[in-house]
Write a structure and sequence with these properties.
mainly alpha
Length: 153
């Protein structure tokens, strides 16, 4: 069964996929010590594993876009999973930021000259984009979206 998706869903999948993959690659490059010139203004740390997580999330969005462009019904499921993954990672980054902030009050000597913005990560502000996506599609989530193949059919 093929389905035609609107341009909003396709643009959202493309935008989030490209942004997550790009920021993930920048994280990885910074982690290897390659100066991209952008990390300071975009809060991109040198984090190889965090970068791989962002690249994976971007790949999920882009795979959903690829299937949506082909009219495959399961394409939107990849976008939904990408949204959920990105929100989970944004929540984890916010918890880490809060933990560092709390630790700075408990052990202030270890955090002399530290700012809470040093814990800020691209996953947080990219998560806002996914939050907007889930708020836009909150009434459209359905288990009937995905085509289920029956055995012998």
């Amino acid at each position: 069964m093929k389905r035609s998706y609107g341009n909003k869903e396709k643009v959202f999948a493309a935008l989030t996929g490209v942004l997550y993959a790009s920021f993930g690659l920048l994280n990885i490059l910074q982690g290897f010590g390659i100066d991209t010139g952008m990390p300071g203004s975009l809060f991109i740390p040198g984090d190889i594993l965090g970068g791989f997580c962002l690249v994976i999330i971007g790949a999920v969005f882009l795979n959903g876009l690829r299937e949506m462009l082909k009219g495959i019904n399961a394409g939107v499921s990849f976008v939904y999973v990408g949204i959920l993954m990105s929100l989970i990672f944004a929540a984890v980054y916010l918890l880490i930021m809060g933990g560092n902030l709390l630790d700075s009050f408990i052990v202030p000597d270890d955090y002399e000259g530290w700012s809470v913005m040093e814990s800020f990560r691209p996953g947080i502000y990219l998560g806002i984009l996914s939050l907007l996506g889930i708020l836009h599609w909150k009434d459209r989530f359905s288990f009937n979206e995905v085509l289920v193949f029956k055995e012998g059919a």
